Predict the 3D structure of the following.
Amino acid sequence: MSFRYEIRLSGSGGQGLILVGKVLAEAAAIYEGLNATQSQSYGPEARGGASRSEVIISDGDIDYPKAENIDILLALTQEACDKYIADLNENGTLIVDSQLVTHVPEGNFRVIQIPIIQSASERLGKFIVANIIALGIIVKISNIVSLESVQHAIKARVPKGTEEINLKALAEGINLAEEWLNKNS
Amino acid sequence: MKNQINSFSIEFLSRVNDFGNHHQKYLVYIEKHFDTLFSLIEEKRSLDQTRLHRFSNNPEKGMRQIASYLSDEETVLDLLGCYYAIQFLMLNFKAVDVLNLKLSITSTNKYNVFHSFLSRTGDDFRLLSGAYMKVLLDIFLEGKTPPPYVVCGVGTKVDQDDIDLGVIDRGKEGRNMLTRAFAKLNREMLKHASPLHFHISEHVGEYGYSAAIPEYHDLLDKKITSFVLISEMLNAVPFIGDFSIYDEFKTEIIDRYFYRENLDNKYHEGYLRGLLGEMNDLIMRKPEENILNPKKDALRLLKAVVFALRTWKGVNEKTSLDALTVLIGAMPELKDDLYNLYRSFTFIETFRFLYQLFVVQEEEICLEEDGMLENLQKVSFYMGYENTFYADAVTQMLIHYQDHVKLSQYNSRRILKHITKHLSKITVFSYFNSEKKDNSLQNKNLPQEFIKSIRFFSGTRFWDDILLSMDRNESTILEQFIEDLKKLSKDDLQKVYAAYVKWGARSPYTLISLFNSIKDKNPLFIENQICQDFMACFIYNIKSRLQDIGNFGKVLDYYPKKMYNFISMLNDDLVRYLLDILNLPIIDAEVNRSRKKLLALCKLHYNSSYFFKRFLYRVFNTYQNFLIDFTNPTKFRKITEGLLGNIDNFSSIDERIEKLNSYYDFEFMRLGINAISGTFFGVINREFTIFSDNYLQILFELCREQVLNKHEKRPVTRDLLALYTAGGHARSQAFDDDYDLIILLNSNDRDIINFANEIVMQMNKHIIRRSIMPHYKFADRFRNYITTFDQLIELFENPDENVFIEKSQLLGSRMIVGNTHFTQAFHDKIVFPYIFDQRDFFIKQLLEEMSSRNSFHHPDPPVDIKESPGGLRDLENFLFILKAYYKIPDPISTKLFTVISNKVKEKEEQFNQLFMDYYFLKYIRDLYHIMVSDDDLLQTKYLETILEPISKSRREKIDTAQNLETRIFQAMKNNEDNIKDILLFLKILK
């Protein structure tokens, strides 16, 4: 029986969530030999306030490209959290930026609240790498792709000259997730 | 064999490394499989046909050959992936080499070079990716006959970051086979090529990657759904499968979005409303300075313009640039605008392509990111720029980029007007354009009928044509709309509100405009509960969301008049609700900037007295184009300086007076905003005095000129006529709601009196229109605007018990128009003989006035800041007493305090205290005037309103209204004590 793992990355335009989707999909498909699809906000949705990028990873064929039973929902804005929470699986995981998502919906799912954007500014001095910190958290929490594959995929996706800071951000995300897991295990 | 790849790859690898990191994925497959591929091709002696060393003009042939050599699917896929990777990189090498060549031999028209570059590269990419997909699909269909289907490319053909596909089939039968094949195709494309996106199938049909024509009918027949979906369908170019399905699809689905003369154009109209809504948004957009986003900055807008014109004019070209080229020829009336769009389009599309090739496949370009300038340098060189002495290549490119963004917005705005005209001719809402009552609406309720009709157009955001029709004076439709609203039951009203709010949710401009139109047509109806409930429903639906705040902010950016008028229609509860949600930050920098501006406007309105609101209303309604940067004090100040400087550039006096009035309104508003924002009141008072003196002086000159032009005989007034201000304005006090004016004439010549009267009458007319009431201090007594010296002398020779009031007015006055000769005569003939030389009588009268007033003014709240003991009146009378006592003719000012305190050194401390408390009370009174009410009786509960600017400007933390009231009482008590103390010391008071 093949598995199908669905990740939705949501927030607002300009937060770099499409890049995170591409990195995850390529890490799975190119470096892990899994199947993956990646899609993103489209049409009027892309012009609205909430932006999304979706990745489906499977070891079998992905015969339907739209994510509907989300295993991990990342929400970097309140608006995105409110809009997409309904598609989160029972027992799925909601990862939110604890400063931007203050009203966390209740439900039968795990909630991970981490100050992602603040960490990017304070620990790395770059607000712009918050997306990669979020990716690190997802990698640690989902365990669906290896760290090494994600590192390769990042290096092959970010602009020249920014590889190091992005890899640091990934490590920071992994650390933050580990800290959370240690506290909450 | 390793030698083969090595010799092949040295230059190859170096060139790939010049591209962005995302090309490394292709190298992964080339390094893994090149040796196997090369040896296989060499073994089969087909090296010349597969073209490993340069881009093939028939890649499908090469791929099919490779696939035919092996039977193991996994190996075939690996080798095809490797072959695709080589060809893809070769394609891009070729593309930039040819671009380089063409740019190096073209010195004039870069834009045609960019066009041919984009077109050729797009064709090559579609040729290569299409061939790859065809071959892969054949493999994944495993030789079985699939149900009929057609694959169409629906995106921009030059885009390499993803490939947008639409797959149309004949129905659900056999679709599983297609779904499985496309699932595998999707996987291979993500791994080896560009990810596929099946957006259309995400919306149409139920499952899988394809949908049939009836499923398109189900989704699109009853409502317009999504103009983006329609644009993709219009872009569709079939390249795999049964093309007859596409032909049917085109006839049944696509063609109805084109304009068809004398036929039902509902679909065309709906599509246009979607596109124009997007165009409006993008034209209004103000990008952040440090971020480029070619799609949002221009390409989306340009494509929307082209799609709108394509469907209007029936242009079938499949790329926007090709369509634009045809349109330039087909629409001579828009030729120049379209040609400018063509230039911007080719420039920005080429920039985006090269950025995605050499840097990263992201839409957003943060200029502050590490290494970005080096990365952009590559892009600039490939776009034909060179470093020069005056500017490096990147700077030149970025300046041109910004020029093209602005040009795109400018030209699109002009074209939008043409499309709007076309829309108003074909609309199903033609009854809005009719001047007569439409019979089809008989027995129907217009608000309900309209909302029913727009269901088909759900999601579209352009209704300017309808709103314009409603606004036309001769139109009766809005009256009918209002009357029909009144006829609805409570339940029906709630439904109508909800439907309209839903309609306007994504484009608040429409509802804001509707409320503006209602107010213009029937101002009383805005106060009606129906309208108030309607607005409440609209406002309470707005949340602190990116989309809501972004859309609202845009209305303010581009229609400040409509936005301000709308805010001024809201009751305090609704404005407070808006303030609450606008106080919350928004993460998007662009929207956050709009949020702050909107918050500033709501605060300004909410915190303004009725008196100040009249200025806001007039300025927003008269000069909205100047108000784009009303939150930027520097720019605002430059506008007012420009307005002042511009007055003399007009030839007619009427025009000059009109410009002078604009200058007054703007300065008044600017200083009001600064005061509310907490600017130090010393600065406000000084600037206020300068501008209002300017105003009165220039107004006097212009009115004088106007009167002179009417008279053949020109009376000589030099040294004889002067204009003084008295009261608050004379004391340099900002935001008085009246002007106390004294016009003195040192002559009894009837002609001069009549002439001066005419001037004042003219001035009066203009001052009143500024919402300032001019008071002519001696007009009541002498029945004339003009007061002669002789009239004053006669009065002072025969004084009554109230004459000290006139004397105080003169003593507290400040000259605005006049000269030193006049001043000298005024002092010699009036001030010294009748005030200073009779000071005992004058002082006695003032002391009696203070005593009598203070006997019935008690210090309990609400405090009268002017008339209560220790209030402003006492302080001013005290200063008049000392002016008379020491014979000092200077007006009341900080300088006067110093002059007097120097004369009573023993009481320096008390004078300092008086000085501080006088300006504190004056400040409180001025703030109260612009933020609460132009009243001197301070209500405790409203003192809260002025706390924020007090703490900002005085750096004095007073945190509650109660504390502020206590502080005011304290100041007044101090004044009472200090005045008494000084007057006793000087033995003026016994």
Remarks:
- Chain B has a mean pLDDT of 90.
- Residues 276 and 809 of chain B are 62 Å apart (CA to CA).
- Chain B touches chain A through 56 residues (CB under 8 Å).
- Chain B has five domains: 1-140, 144-257, 266-418, 427-609, 838-990.
